Amino acid sequence: QVQLVEAGGGLVQAGGSLRLSCAISERSFRTYGMGWFRQAPGKEREFVAALSWNGGNTYYSDSVKGRFTIYKDNAKKTVYLQMNSLKPEDTAVYYCALSYGERRPTPLVANLYDYWGQGTQVTVSS
Known about the structure:
- By secondary structure, the chain is an all-beta fold.
- It is built from no helices and eleven strands.
- The N and C termini lie far apart (40 Å).
- The mean pLDDT is 95.
- A hairpin with a 4-residue loop joins strand 7 and strand 8 (78-83).
- The radius of gyration is 14 Å and the shape is globular.
- Strands 2, 4, 5, 6, 9, 10 and 11 form a seven-stranded mixed beta sheet that branches.
């Protein structure tokens, strides 16, 4: 049984920062990579950031590169998404996701992720 619980969303002004967290409840000894996706109203879910299964590589969409950072605290089994210089177009529900296995390359598409959190709303006002 895998559970992913996101937190940290909220309302912030443009230019501000938020840090999202994703607590991972996972008891197997399997390796996995983690990703963040987002979905704005009326739009499809889109890739935001990913962390490879070994924690050595990070990937970002062009729209967030240089502003967002994905990282993991292994001791807390929590993945974070630090979001800086937020823009109104970053407004969306943000989801964390888990992809089992030592996938190469690290998945950047939603259908290669096995488990999803419930999402957390991020609203950026102009």
